[in-house]
Amino acid sequence: MMGWMHETGRGAEQDFAKAITFYEKGDKVGYTDSTTNLGRLKRSGSGTEKDIAGAAALYEKSCDLDLARGCAELADILVDESASLGGESALKKAGTFVEKAFRLDPRDTFTISLRGHMLLNGLGLEKDEKAAAEAFKLAGELGYGFAWRRYA
After folding, report:
1. Most Cβ neighbours (<10 Å): which of 73, 76, 87, 132?
2. 114/124 Cα distance (integer angstroms)
3. CA–CA separation, 65 and 101 (whole Å)
4. Cα–Cα distance between 40 and 129 in angstroms, integer?
5. DSSP secondary-structure letter at 14?
6. How far apart are CA 138 and CA 144, in angstroms?
């Protein structure tokens, strides 16, 4: 919680260095949300040097511990960085991770929308426009406004 407070500036002064310190402590004791949040900061370069490989490793660690968000974030990196991370093999892995994320938390709007994007474009999943539309519709119904624009 302290990491998030320092990351966002809600309830504490925004200080990415302190957020990283708290997230690292949480990661060391197995708190998977801290692991995933630390990965997000490494991916964006907030308070630290941008480190896509390091972020991917943290997301994979939290995914291995069955945190859906870690699996979805890992899939997202593999899609976004597929050219530098192995092309088609990276996309295939992304498909595996987004499906695991969806099984773990079928109501997470980020996962559902990412899965819809992957289905729509055949990125790591077999292209299926009908299934993509259903995913965007579900994400929209769950409150993810961007998904409604994709569904429409």
Report:
1. 73
2. 11
3. 11
4. 30
5. -
6. 9
